[in-house]
Write a structure and sequence with these properties.
The complex is a heterodimer of chains A (297) and B (271).
Chain A lengths: L1 H37 L8 H6 L3 E2 L6 E2 L2 H32 L2 H14 L4 H20 L7 H25 L3 H9 L4 H12 L1 H17 L2 H6 L17 H9 L7 H30 L9
Antiparallel strand pairs in A: 1-2
Chain B lengths: L1 H21 L1 E7 L4 H14 L3 E7 L2 H10 L4 E4 L5 H9 L4 E15 L7 E2 L1 H8 L17 E5 L4 H11 L9 E3 L2 H9 L4 E6 L8 E2 L1 E2 L6 H5 L6 E9 L5 H10 L4 H7 L7
Parallel strand pairs in B: 1-2, 1-3, 5-10, 6-7, 6-8
Antiparallel strand pairs in B: 3-11, 4-8, 4-9, 4-11
Helix pairs in contact in B: 2-10
């Protein structure tokens, strides 16, 4: 009887281990494939020339494989979209968690999370058809398909992530901290600024970084609204081409296992390293400032 | 009793075999330029041959040719001829791609309808795409900046543009890149400063086609070679076609059938 139970337990454990192992193995295989297909490009160009080369002409003869403009474009778009989405997301989260009434929160939070469910192609289309002409006329610039437009659309996409994770973090601040602060005579706003934000900082940082890593990997939106010029932007109204846009636009037509194909996979590697760094930072921050109980502040 | 059972079983088996033989399938993959042609032709083809089901996807010429080489598709649409490297890979894998020219594509420079420019020479087009001409007034247009819209460097449409217009010089890095004919059309129709180029099938009322060296793009000018920016479009098969693939290729090339749809899809028929 007991033996039978132990057997069953072992079976269940083995089953779960198997499932977990399969999913990790698949991810690992994809990663191996990415690096196996990307590294051959470094036989033709040095890593330095690849990362800091100014020109991306993969199909010219002789070809140029410099991804510096794409790299800068990706960073610029991500940074600018963070400038827009971080204040919006965190303030919305603070409002929902601390100030809004129960009823408002119950209605607004699902709506914000629904925003996350908007397909990126829809957001991209909106940026192309509505925002681009508007920007062009308002600021009297050459084209509405530019860095600013792409950042705005990406900000739309990362606000829900940032907002809902931050809101959970703010709500999990222990009540006694808040009560203690109020009991000492601090106003509600002072309490939010001096107690609640510091206490939930790790959760908020995680939210911001996850939102940014969503923005840097986003493909469809930047393909549609960033403009796609492979040059280093000098103003926020310059057209740019982030890394994912290049991969998506060119992969279909690149001859299989050609230098161009390997170069695109190498861009994928760079992109992967970026998001990995982001996630590692998020993880470290979350562990370092873990809020356990009220005594650790 | 037993006999009857056997007879009915034999009948059922016969039916099974017959239906298996009837349900043939045909896979087509490749160029997004050729996609509208292939789709229209396939719809009509399936009406004529209900037993053959055709499935079509568009992943780009490179992917189509790769699929022919790997044997994962029956027909590859391609907006360019097969490259030497791809031939080498095919021979290595024991595949022999056979090209069929199925239509002509003609690539038209387009501007926003509000632009007063209606004709540019090949050299002016080249200078605009090299980034040497930055304002429309340099070519006799309004005093507005030129926004150059091009295609991603690996598209077949871009290759034609590069070959016929750029002639060995590069499109300057400041050109906006769009990933499809539709995206270029969309971007040009929304921007009064823009110039782009699209396949003749994508012209719509939101775009103003330019004449090149005084020649307007059209069926006659493409076929007699007076319009400079055009190219043949191909379907590749793996080895000489047979069975449903042969039926389909014959259908595409038929002047009253497939070629009619080539025209409907906005391309230039062979005859």
């Amino acid at each position: 009887m007991i033996a039978e139970r132990a057997n069953r337990e072992a079976l269940i454990r083995a089953f779960f281990f198997g499932v977990a192992f399969v999913s990790i193995a698949i991810l690992g295989t994809i990663l191996v494939f990415l690096f196996a297909e990307g590294t051959p490009i470094f036989r033709t160009v040095s890593v330095k020339a690849f990362l800091f080369g100014r020109y991306w002409y993969p199909t010219a003869d002789p070809p140029d494989f410099g991804i510096y403009p794409l790299l800068i474009a990706s960073m610029a778009v991500t940074a600018l979209s963070a400038c827009i989405s971080v204040p919006l997301g965190i303030m919305t989260a603070l409002y929902l968690a601390e100030i809004a009434s129960e009823r408002v929160r119950e209605t607004v939070k699902p709506i914000i999370e629904l925003l996350a469910a908007l397909p990126s192609v829809v957001i991209g289309f909106f940026g192309m058809v509505v925002v681009a002409p508007f920007l062009q006329e308002t600021f009297n610039i050459a084209t509405g398909l530019n860095l600013f437009n792409a950042s705005l659309m990406l900000a739309f996409m990362s606000v829900p992530t940032i907002c809902s994770i931050s809101e959970d973090a703010i709500r999990s601040v222990p009540l006694e901290l808040k009560e203690a602060s109020l009991a000492l005579g601090a106003t509600h706003l002072e309490t939010i600024g001096r107690v609640i934000i510091p206490a939930s900082l790790s959760g908020i940082s995680t939210a911001v970084i996850l939102g940014m890593s969503r923005a840097i990997g986003e493909t469809m939106v930047v393909l549609m609204v960033a403009g796609g010029a492979a040059m280093v932007p000098l103003s926020i109204f310059d057209p740019v081409r982030p890394m994912p846009a290049s991969i998506a636009a060119e992969m279909a037509e690149a001859p299989f296992r050609s230098e161009h194909y390997h170069a695109l996979f190498a861009i994928g590697m760079v992109l992967f390293l970026f998001t990995m760094v982001f996630n590692v930072i998020a993880d470290t921050v979350a562990h370092k400032h873990k809020q356990v109980g009220a005594a650790t502040l | 009793m037993k006999m009857r059972f056997l007879a009915s079983a034999a009948c059922a088996l016969g039916l099974l075999i017959a239906s298996a033989a009837r349900a043939e399938s045909l896979n087509i993959n490749g160029s997004t330029t050729v996609l509208p042609v292939a789709q229209k032709v396939a719809e009509a083809f399936m009406k004529e041959y209900p037993s053959i089901s055709v499935s079509i996807s568009g992943g780009g010429s490179g992917n189509g040719i790769k699929a022919i080489i790997d044997g994962t598709t029956d027909i590859a649409n391609s907006s360019r001829f097969i490259k030497d490297k791809e031939v080498a890979l095919a021979v290595q894998k024991g595949a022999y791609p056979v090209p069929f020219a199925v239509a002509y594509d003609c690539i038209v420079p387009v501007v926003h309808p509000s632009n007063t420019i209606s004709d540019l020479s090949l050299d002016q087009l080249k200078a605009i795409y090299e980034g040497k001409i930055r304002n429309w007034k340099e070519v006799g247009g309004p005093d507005r900046p030129v926004v150059v819209i091009s295609r991603d460097t690996s598209s077949g449409t871009y290759e034609v543009w590069e070959e016929k217009v750029m002639r060995k010089s590069r499109v300057y890095p400041g050109a906006l890149l769009q990933a499809s004919n539709g995206a270029v059309a969309q971007a040009v129709s929304r921007n009064a400063n823009a110039i782009g180029y699209v396949g003749i099938g994508y012209l719509n009322e939101g775009l103003k086609p330019l004449t090149v060296d005084g020649v307007a793009a059209g069926v006659e000018t493409t076929l007699d070679g007076t319009f400079a920016i055009s190219r043949p479009l191909f379907m590749f098969t793996r080895g000489w076609p047979e069975g449903p693939v042969l039926k389909f290729i014959k259908y595409v090339l038929h002047p009253a059938k497939g070629q009619k749809y080539v025209k409907d899809a906005g391309f230039v028929p062979l005859y």
